[in-house]
TrEMBL record:
Membrane-spanning segments: 87-107, 127-147, 154-173, 179-201, 213-232, 244-263, 295-316, 338-361, 373-394, 400-428, 440-462, 512-536
Protein's name in the database: Protein spinster isoform X1
Organism this protein belongs to: Drosophila arizonae
Major facilitator superfamily (MFS) profile domain sequence ranges: 89-541
Annotated localization: Membrane
Name of the gene this protein is made from: LOC108615407
Domain of life of the native organism: Eukaryota
Length: 590
């Protein structure tokens, strides 16, 4: 690129920028560095140049012309409202997300009955969730690739229909092999929806309005999980058969399929004003995502969140039931009662945690540019000791146990909507479905895909070791006692004591195994704190890429300096970055 062209990309002085955009008047003067420009973008130049804009309009064009330095100034206009179609789209997506997580955690509410039916131990019980998440994560990249290229509406319709059908068929399986096979098929269907739905919301809304809608969407995760425990345990108790618990969500799934078929699929990048989307190869997109440090680090932090969530959600009711049952007077305590209470706690934590995380992010973004990963990291640091105390209290005080579980889940739920928002504003619109798929693949592969099985396998190994040591000690005691007297009553007493010891070992082994989640939470908090070092610059780069791409489409001979109405993107980065971007964009088109 020539020196003449490079000079066209020099950043504007802060005074000029303040005149063009009053929201930037409080920013520090621009020195042309990337960090200073990133601060300007964060504080005063959102991707679509409006505070809560939904879609492009004529007034947006006037405002952009004003940013381009022309004499046309935008006329005062009222903030656009949310149309019925947009409310319908968000409502349908939230409803499907709700029943999605209801289905996912219904089995956890009746896990004790499932173990008795198929005569399996903790390791095999954990494998039920693991095979589901494995198939879920393996097919997520495929649906992410198709979601960036084909009709998202019909991909979701097919996916929801698939998981509803396989859930229903799975409830009739009489063997563990058949049952676990259909659980794996359920994961394929759910992968289609979870990968695509957030990108539709991102194409309908921007900025704070997008954050609010994402909070509403992810609000359905803890609430749906809680309903899964409640509906599963209640239905199993009423029908006297845990299999009927799996036949509730398929009925709701039929309704979801009908509603999704009526959904309007917005254009990709519509909310950012991207008129046309050029597709790159999957390898190019993946390579670009792996270079995005904010995306990689936030995905690593979210993987830790998924690990903890998967382990506690799967084993939490069973663990609390084991602990409370050892208290005097609770010998006949039912698993269904604990699952019901655990579901209520999960729902309450979701009702508070998800909106609170979104509200904190929106409040502090005007004060701290990189507040989002800080909120996620602090939430994990708070949740870790709460989880530890809750695990310790399960055997002595049920009320305190549920209280600390509630506090731990509230802090953990702060992350859900914020992590989704981070992905959407550090990744350009044409790669968001792929980014969602990669994040799902990574977070589930190293997170909740293995955590239920890992916790179950570790607890089984610890319990077997405890039982082996106990039998050795008991054998020595019995030999010494037999030398004194051979009494049948004493033998029966020892047998009963051994059975009681096995229950204690089952509880303690699961407790030791679940302690691992506290260390994973601390690790996740560290990842989010590191993310805070890069997120402002990566967000600015994503914004500049969208604007520069629009300029490149209008520029003769693919020369940005010759664009008829160069946008403010030329002031965001120096000539070297824009030259590199031009080369990348041209290679992708080829």
């Amino acid at each position: 690129m020539s020196l003449k062209n490079q000079q066209a990309y020099q950043p504007l002085p802060s005074a000029v920028a303040a005149m063009d955009n009053p929201a930037m008047s409080n920013s520090s003067s621009s020195s042309g560095s990337n960090d200073d420009v990133a601060e300007l973008v964060q504080s005063g130049l959102p991707p679509t140049y409006s505070s809560q804009q939904l879609v492009s309009s004529d007034s947006d064009s006037m405002e952009r012309q004003h940013l381009r330095g022309t004499s046309i100034a935008p006329e005062p206009r009222s903030r656009p409202g949310i149309s019925r179609k947009q409310w319908f789209a968000v409502s349908v997506l939230c409803f499907v997300n709700l029943i999605n997580y209801m289905d996912r955690f219904t089995i956890a509410g009746v896990l004790t009955d499932v173990k008795k039916t198929f005569a399996i131990d903790n390791d095999s019980a954990g494998l039920l969730q693991t095979v589901f998440v494995l198939s879920y994560m393996v097919f997520a990249p495929l649906f992410g690739y198709m979601g960036d290229r084909y009709s998202r509406r019909w991909l979701m319709v097919v996916g929801v229909a698939l998981w509803s059908t396989t859930t229903l068929f799975g409830s009739f399986m009489q063997t563990f092999a058949g049952f676990i096979t259909f659980r794996a098929l359920v994961g394929i269907g759910e992968a289609s929806y979870s990968t695509i739905a957030p990108t539709i919301i991102s194409d309908l809304f921007v900025d704070s309005m997008r954050s609010k809608m994402l909070a509403l969407f992810y609000f359905a995760i803890p609430v749906g999980s809680g309903l899964g425990y409640i509906v599963g345990s209640t239905t199993a108790e009423l029908a006297h058969d845990w299999r009927w618990a799996l036949r509730v969500t398929p009925v709701l799934g039929v309704t979801a399929v009908v509603l999704l078929s009526m959904l309007k699929d917005p254009k990709r990048g519509e909310s950012e004003g991207v008129e046309q989307v050029e597709r790159a190869s999957f390898c190019v997109e993946l390579k670009d995502l792996l270079k995005n440090r904010s995306f990689v680090l936030s995905t690593a932090g979210f993987t830790c969140v998924a690990f903890v969530t998967g382990a506690l959600a799967w084993w939490g009711p069973n663990y609390i039931h084991l602990g409370l049952k050892m208290q005097p007077g609770n010998e006949n305590l039912k698993q269904e009662d604990i699952s019901y209470k655990f579901g209520l706690v999960a729902m309450a934590a979701g009702l508070i945690g998800v909106p609170l995380g979104s509200a904190l992010a929106q409040y502090y973004r005007t004060r701290i540019a990189n507040c989002d990963p800080y909120i996620c990291g602090i939430g994990l640091f708070i949740s870790a000791p709460m989880v530890f105390i809750g695990l310790v209290m399960a055997r002595s005080n049920g009320t305190l146990c549920f209280l600390f579980v509630f506090l731990a889940q509230v802090a953990l739920n702060l992350c859900w909507s914020i992590v989704a928002d981070i992905l959407l504003y550090v990744v350009v619109p044409m790669r968001r479905s792929t980014a969602e798929a990669v994040q799902i693949l990574a977070s589930h592969a190293l997170g909740d895909a293995g955590s239920p099985y890992l916790v179950g396998a570790i607890s089984t190994a610890i319990k077997n070791k405890m039982l082996a040591q106990s039998r050795t000690v008991d054998s020595d005691v019995l030999k010494s006692m037999s030398q004194l007297a051979e009494n049948a009553t004493e033998i029966v007493t020892e047998t009963l004591r051994a059975r009681s010891a096995e229950d204690v070992y089952t509880f303690e082994s699961l407790q030791y195994s679940l302690f691992s989640t506290t260390f994973v939470e601390v690790l996740g908090g560290v990842f989010f704190l590191i993310t805070a070092c890069y997120i402002v610059k990566d967000k600015s780069r994503a914004t500049a890429s969208v604007l520069a791409d629009n300029d490149l489409r209008l520029a003769p001979n693919n020369d940005l300096s010759l664009a008829p109405n160069p946008t403010y993107s030329k002031t965001l980065f120096d000539a070297e970055y824009l030259a590199n971007y031009t080369d990348i964009a041209l290679r992708e088109r080829a």
